[in-house]
Design brief:
235 residues, 11 helices, globular, alpha/beta, Rossmann fold
């Protein structure tokens, strides 16, 4: 199993949209995909059409303990429910981590919770970390470099940002967008920069329509996410 965590420099950048559509994209390629929304955002469950009465999980070091908290979704990916108040210590338990790796999936996509928790979970669990970024922010390079430093510290130098996705841009101001993006690329390396992910009202409406990217008509949107899936396959 390959574990990927999707984080962001701030909320509202598109982290959840990227996480769910990446999971669906991998599923469409024939992979078995497990998804975990660590922050238990009820909107995600509505999008996936998974009806769960909130409860606390009781994970032990056996696969059956985790499997009883796995639910099928309308989009085809399976959902691991982390409980009402997801606890970082669940992901700090080595026996539980080993059990997660034994589950019958090719990819485990994690959409973490709050800032401190998401970094800790990403550092503890993920094989690769993808950061969604906001080029509208002049200070974005600093924010990303702080994320990188924190990941390195938590993981004792073992983890960092593996892919940076430009998700939010300043419309019609490409000089601004490219200036910010080039500064990020110079710092992290051009090989770690992903393609721009188009942003439009149709994407924002996906949770309401309960659809995924590949059900839209816009070929540029689907092509961008196809390239993201291909990048992840090469991790």
């Amino acid at each position: 199993m390959h574990i990927i965590s999707i984080i962001s420099s701030r909320r509202g950048v598109g982290q959840t949209t990227v996480a769910i559509n990446l999971a669906v994209g991998l599923l469409r390629k024939g992979y078995r995909v497990l998804f975990c929304n660590v922050n238990s955002n009820p909107g995600v469950y509505n999008w996936l059409e998974v009806k769960i009465e909130p409860y606390e999980v009781q994970w032990q070091a056996e696969a059956k303990d985790l499997q009883r908290d796995i639910y099928p979704s309308a989009l085809g990916i399976d959902l691991l429910y982390p409980g009402i108040s997801p606890r970082v210590e669940l992901f700090q338990n080595e026996a539980i981590l080993n059990t997660i790796y034994e589950l019958p999936y090719d990819y485990f996509i994690i959409n973490p919770g709050g800032e401190a928790e998401e970094l800790l979970i990403a550092a503890l669990l993920a094989d690769n970390v993808i950061a969604c970024t906001d080029l509208r922010n002049e200070n974005e390079l600093h924010r990303l470099s702080v994320l990188q430093e924190q990941l390195n510290q938590i993981s004792q130098g073992q983890k960092g940002l593996n892919l940076i996705l430009p998700c939010k841009i300043v419309s019609s101001e490409w000089d601004h967008n490219t200036t910010i993006l080039f500064s990020i690329a110079e710092y992290f390396g051009y090989e770690k920069i992903g393609d721009f992910l188009p942003s439009c009202e149709r994407i924002h409406s996906l949770p309401d329509t309960k659809q995924h990217i590949w059900q839209l008509q816009q070929s540029n949107i689907k092509q961008a996410f196809n390239r993201l899936v291909e990048r992840v396959e090469k991790f």
